[in-house]
Amino acid sequence: MTKRDWIAAALIAGFAFLIRSATFGNPTLEPDESFYMLVGIKMHDGLLPYIDIYDRKPFGLFLIYYLIAFISHDPAAYQVVATLFAATTGFVIYAFSRSAGGIAAGCLYLAGLALLFGNGGQAPVFYNLLVAAAGWLIFFNRKVGLAMILCGAAITIKHSAVFEAIFLGLYAMRNRPLRDAVKFVALGCFPFALTALPFLSHFDRFWACVFLAPIDNEAKSAVLIAKRLIEAFPVVFAGLAGLALSRHRLFLSGWLLATALSFVAVPNFYPHYLLPMLVPLSIASARLGFGTIPFVLLAVWMHWPFDFERTKQARAEFARLDKALSNYPGRLAVNTGPVLLYRNRSMPYDVWHPQGDVIVDRCDRADFLYMMRQSAIGVCIFANAPPAADAVSP
């Protein structure tokens, strides 16, 4: 690391914390990552994914949240760790060019995350770092075996990383003997094999959740593809402009195509499914030099990141609802509301289709606000039994 690299790292990390700190502690920032944090907490109580808690994500993602839960059960813990991952990914993006444009490219990646629900702890926020590091190793022809292990680790966080792993593996093979392919495939499969070991005695459940369930997805309108690209306009435009000028457009175009395949392979077309695409686009944008900076500013303006009041209100509403629920006997079922309400309570096997005696759901005359993403949904408590006599009114 040179002095310039340390300065770049400081600038990128500072920018990451600057534009993400307003969300720290928000318990309802994103329902997906709130669920991942819940699973990480429950694993400390002896529960296991797939066996005690249903979901389709690979085990590596839950392992990350399990480790985060050692730090704290507060959502700020995963949000700070996710920021460290995002900032490090931004630095790897800079490292492809080691230029002023590279610093701007790293910042563009960070600003672009928020445009696609990536300002918290979505799976790609974590695995983008592994894939970016693998891409750097392969691009500069350094430790290709390690790069394949990193790709394999990314697949343990989300299945769709397999498309990027395949591309990077093929690119690494371009000047290598065919026999190396077997070694690279074995190294890439090794991390996923490790994550299967804890579930060998319940392998049928592991197989059904991790391999079969993700195939069962209802396709949505392809119009959403264009909508998602428009939502990420600053990164898409700067990246494509840089790609047109780049001397390494073959490598970056192939990588970009791999991320596009990962997006369409699961045709829900949610915004965060596009997060992997930000990495090759941001790397390409470095070619614009200081011309990348206006796109960084535009991305920040499109998703203004300094709403500290919203996080304060979200925490207050969560605490108020959590306190009110403590007065109701029975099994909790959160139909619409913060899943972290199960944090200190028993939880259903399938959080997304719960059954219980005490139900949190949307209602017209709302008693509480569920402040998910950029919206606010009114919710109420529905119960067969009345609250305890000493219940405090919310």
Feature tags:
single chain; about 400 residues; mainly alpha; four-stranded mixed sheet; 16 helices; disordered C terminus
Structure description:
By secondary structure, this protein is mostly helical. It has two domains: 3-302, no CATH class; 308-383, no CATH class. A four-stranded mixed beta sheet has the order 1-2-4-3, with helices on one face. Helices cover 57% and strands 5% of the residues.
Structural class: mainly alpha
State Rg: 22 Å
Number of domains: 2
Strand residue percentage? under 5%
Overall form: globular
Largest beta sheet: strand ordering: 1-2-4-3
- The ordered string of helix (H) and strand (E) elements is HHHHHHHHHHHHHHHHEEEE
Helix content: 55-70%
Number of strand segments: 4
Number of helices: 16
What summary fits the major beta sheet?
Answer: 4 strands, mixed
Low-confidence stretches: 389-394
Average pLDDT rating: 92
First-to-last CA distance: 55 Å
What is the compact description of this entry?
The protein is mainly α and 394 residues long. The chain has helices at residues 3-20, 31-43, 59-71, 75-95, 100-115, 123-139, 144-155, 162-172, 179-196, 203-212, 223-231, 233-245, 249-265, 278-285, 293-302, 308-325; strands at residues 332-334, 358-362, 368-370, 377-383. It folds into two domains: 3-302, no CATH class; 308-383, no CATH class.
